[in-house]
Write a structure and sequence with these properties.
GO terms for molecular function: glutamate dehydrogenase (NAD+) activity; glutamate dehydrogenase (NADP+) activity. The chain has 13 helices and twelve strands. By secondary structure, the chain is of the alpha/beta class.
Length: about 400
């Protein structure tokens, strides 16, 4: 099942639990606007290249739409639509005043030079500048994009609308980015894990972890969990997978990786088959890479007691059912990986106020938002006698539905 079908399925289940009428249900599912633009740029060798860019603005009942822009060869309208819808529910679960959006350009960023990426970003911004804005739609980095991409968008947008730092989040600190933003998703994963384990009388300290993905989210999650006394016993990325039953030395591994080393070449670990990573014995499994990695083929062999969805849609619905029968507790993506969008909200607030926070305040506020969201999800689980995924979906959908009704948009 693709990401759009799975997200829509979860939404419909939540709508049924909430007893939404069919007209309201349909209006919540339909995107506010879908944008498709062609971006033609001169390449460094003088030839012209064309790329298709997308922006799906899903819902703005609770505030400006919010969502990342990804550069990836497999960006397509279905995927962007699913992720935009997911952002609507995610921002509502987090109780931040945003709706959902998502965008992307179908390209292979690794095959483009820095100057080509800049030209592509500026052309894309020129095509959508009148449809985004601090109080309309606020983009952020995603797969294949970063703070430099956001700096180019900010600059290009400002040529049309004047200096507007709040138009994007995930910017460089020197252009109004927030302290703590780089670590935010990984730190939020740690806070979410801490909250879930506490419910079961456990803690990060003394628990064993397997992490799939060692990019921004995975590396920060591993580092912060290690600092909290958790034992990361296996870890993998596109270069390979490694394990150490006594716990990997995460600071040493980070140093090795930052010096250009591949995971499989790390001295203090045993190389393992990557296909074994997700089914490795552990207390907590944290998928931080692509969607759909847990499926009906490998779900029966999963040995983790808890799964924290740091990636978007890492668990197929079929795997969800298998894991539930096995008694595995899954903390869903629309809550578990919301640390990034929460700190993006803090960045937006700081830009609008023109008053920057120190990192301690950012982390303290993030902790508060993650804890509050978890308690609200648990309350919905109790009210509707459902699992954590449906607890999160009913919480998010209910908040958006209430805002829609209050604004008189249901007709």
């Amino acid at each position: 099942m693709n990401a759009l079908a799975a997200t829509s399925r979860n939404f419909r289940q939540a709508a049924r639990l909430l007893g939404l009428d069919s007209k309201l249900e349909k209006s919540l599912l339909i995107p506010f606007r879908e944008i498709k633009v062609e971006c033609t740029i001169p390449k460094d060798d003088g030839t012209l290249a064309s790329f298709i860019g997308f922006r799906v603005q899903h819902d703005n009942a609770r505030g400006p739409m919010k969502g990342g822009i990804r550069y990836h060869p497999e960006v397509d309208p279905d995927e962007v639509n699913a992720l935009a819808q997911l952002m609507t529910w995610k921002t509502a679960v987090a109780a931040i005043p945003y709706g959902g959006a998502k965008g992307g350009i179908g390209c292979a960023p690794g095959e483009l030079s820095t100057s080509e990426l800049e030209r592509l970003t500026r052309v894309f911004t020129q095509k959508i500048h009148d449809l985004i804005g601090a109080h309309t739609d606020v983009p952020a980095p995603d797969m294949g994009t970063n703070s430099q991409t956001m700096a180019w968008i900010l600059d290009e947008y400002s040529k049309f609308h004047g200096h507007s730092p709040a138009v994007v989040t995930g910017k460089p600190i020197d252009l109004g980015g927030s302290l703590g933003r780089d670590a935010a998703t990984g730190r939020g994963v740690m806070y979410a894990t801490e909250a879930l384990l506490a419910e079961h009388g456990k803690s990060i300290s003394g628990s064993t972890f397997v992490i799939q993905g060692f990019g921004n989210v995975g590396s920060w999650a591993a580092r912060i969990i290690h600092e909290k006394g958790g034992k990361v016993i296996a870890l993998g990325d596109v270069t390979g997978s490694i394990r150490n039953k006594n716990g990997l030395d995460i600071p040493a591994l980070m140093k090795h990786r930052n010096e250009g080393g591949a995971l499989k070449d790390f001295h203090d670990a045993e190389v393992m088959d990557s296909s074994e990573l997700l089914v490795h014995e552990c207390d907590v499994l944290i998928p931080c890479a692509l969607g759909g990695v847990l499926n009906r083929e490998n779900a029966p062999d999963v040995k983790a007691k808890f799964i924290i969805e740091a990636a978007n849609h890492p668990t197929d619905p079929e795997a969800d059912e298998i894991l539930a029968k096995k008694g595995v507790t899954i903390l869903p993506d629309i809550y578990a990986n919301s640390g990034g969008v929460i700190v993006s909200y803090f960045e937006w607030v700081q830009n609008i106020q023109g008053f920057m926070w120190d990192e301690e305040k950012v982390n303290m506020e993030l902790h508060k938002y993650m804890n509050n969201s978890f308690q609200h999800i648990k309350a919905m689980c109790k009210s509707h006698d459902c699992n954590l995924r449906m607890g999160a979906f009913t919480l998010g959908v209910n908040r958006v539905a209430r805002a829609t009704l209050l604004r008189g948009w249901e007709a």
